[in-house]
Amino acid sequence: MIESPGSEILDCLVDGEWSGYLSVADRGFMLGEGIWERVAMVHGRPWWWQDHIDRLNRGGDRLALRVPHQSILLREAQTVAAGHARALVYIFLTRGGALERQHGDGRPGETRIVMAFPWPPSDPQLNRRGVAARFCSLKLGVQPALGGINHLNRLEWVLAARENAAYEQVEGLLKDTNGHLISALASNIFLVMGRQLLTPRMDRNGIRGVLRGRIIREFKSRTELRRISPDMLEEADEVFLSDLVRGIVPVRSIEELSFEIGPVTRELQSWLSNRQEQL
Asked: Please, is 177 exposed, middle or buried when counting C-beta atoms within 10 Å of its C-beta (0-12, 13-18, 19+)?
């Protein structure tokens, strides 16, 4: 989801060349015209690689961006992560510079940026004890043309994160302008009703997280995509967040509501732990 990787870049490739520079004429810089992925690399192997490629291709189709063959992206991801047991690799694809690198048809060529950042420090007790959460006052706009994809226009999220920074160790939750619950700032969200899983639809805004997608597929018979209003939280038995790096994080409270860290959340945590061991 939306989370700053920090300032320490381990290594960076721009269009396959070692570089830390991007043209000021690049439309990704000027207009936010592009898509991106954050890939967890462990000992040179990416977690959920095909899921990332599939999401990148969906975003490319939506914005009419040509996505390089996944073999190129994998080679470059492994190159920038080389020498590090664990790293987060960010892949950015932008429209490129309007005045540079023209294709034969006169259109600008896409820019490809692949960079590695250190794995963020983690709290080993987070998945056990859970987190508190609150609603941010900022509301996400509704735009079906961009719903669900990892595009570069994320100022709404930046402003919401800045607001939530005043609440130390509290997760920020986002609603849209129609009042529907969408996600947390850097995670997707699931409600547990009995043994059934509910998660917000992402056809109008938000980001379809890779782990969210895996949960939906693996627990298809128990999962429903819904428009979720905040008052539905009062009926939930459990609530948890899903994030590529932090995994399954229980939510123990949302403002005045409290939740048990129950058996379904623990079941999902166990499932994920087993899957990660196989990656």
From this structure: exposed
Question: What type of residue sits at position 130?
Answer: G
C-alpha pair distances (Å), 142 with each of 2, 3, 88, 206: 17, 21, 30, 9
What is the radius of gyration, based on Cα positions, of the chain?
A: 19
Q: What are the angstrom distances between the C-alpha of 181 and each of 229, 230, 252?
A: 6, 6, 17
Residue type, 55: R
Q: Give the pairing of strands 223-226 and 196-200.
A: parallel
Residue 233 CA to residue 257 CA, distance in Å, equals: 8
pTM above 0.70, yes or no: yes
Location of structure tokens 């570089």: 19
Structure tokens at 103: 């294709």
At position 14, the amino acid (one-letter code) is V
How many degrees, rounded to 5, is the angle at CA 3 between CA 198 and CA 223?
A: 10
pLDDT in tens, 111-162: 999 999 999 988 889 999 999 999 999 999 999 999 999 999 999 999 999 9
DSSP 7: S
